[in-house]
Amino acid sequence: MAPSYVLLLAFGIGVIAGLRSLTAPAVVAWAALRGWLNLHGTSLSFMGSTAAVAIFTVLAVVELVADQLPSTPARTKPPGLIARILLGGLSGAAIALAGGQSAAVGACLGAVAGIVGAFVGYQVRTRLVQALKVPDIVIAVLEDLVAIAGALFSVTRF
Q1: First to last CA, the chain
Q2: How many Å apart are CA 74 and CA 53, to the nearest integer?
Q3: What is the C-alpha to C-alpha distance for residues 26 and 13, in angstroms, rounded to an integer?
Q4: Alpha-carbon 149 to chain mean position
């Protein structure tokens, strides 16, 4: 696989982390456990463990539910944005390593993409709700589906 394609996938999984911070690492962990991503013998081999899959999956489901609550802070506020940067970096590094590329470059791309995904996702969601005159939950669920599909796309290219 071409290095540029691997790094594009690392950026893509970071964008997914910007939309839903825990969906990206949960899908990466599942992909590593299932053997879709080869992380054996790397610094991120723990991502393929049953414990990592369980933890990230539970947290991702909690995030999907919590995102629907009106009291949930904006993803562009510091706590949510920091989570998206860190988890985008982790997921980007895993994709890069699985594709034989530098973990550091993948982490940087994933982290930057986490910021991009957070701000672009926020703007798109807000504008769609206003333009379509639908409840926020409709667009939020659509965004959930986009995040899950995008993450699955990124990890199944190997």
Answers
A1: 8
A2: 26
A3: 11
A4: 11
H or E stretch including 65? Answer: helix 50-66
Instruction: List phi, psi (to 5°) of 4.
Output: -65, -35
CA within 13 Å, CB half, 57 = 12
**Single pTM value for the model:** 0.95
Closest CA relative to residue 120, chosen from 90, 88, 152: 88
Q: What is the pLDDT of residue 70?
A: 83
Q: Convert 47-73 to b/e letters by CB count within 10 Å (16 or more is b).
A: bbeeebbeebbebbeebbeebeeeeee
* pLDDT of 2 strictly over 90: yes
> Contact at 8 Å (CB) between 44 and 10?
no
CA gap 109, 90 in Å, rounded:
10
Average pLDDT over residues 80-98: 98
pLDDT score of 68 = 84
